[in-house]
Protein: Protein sleepless
Amino acid sequence: MMKVLFVVALTLFAIVHYSTALTCYSCTNCPDPFNPAQPGVRNITAGAGQSCKKQKGKILGFEGVSRTAEACGTNKCEKVSLFGQSSTVCCCNTDMCNGARQTTITTLMVVVIALVIAIMNM
Structure:
């Protein structure tokens, strides 16, 4: 009985966590290394279906970093190239995650692992 209550509690936690608004950093020409206290960096609320996004690349010889909220997938980094210019785009879905150098493990992944362990031990 205790295991069932544990699984239900974890599931409810995941649902509540993902129903709350996602907060992301937003800036163009962001400081690198990142410092959220610098001028021009602000916190924004992601809209429905959006993730936090960090993009770093070189355009016409100038290197830059931008952070925002955008519909771009979740918890992945990929190299993109457009007109011979390349950049790395990282998307994540935890609060303020686009300030990190890399995406981090998500709460949902922790919940899924915990559910699998709980079910296997029933």
In short: The chain is about 25% helix and 35% strand.
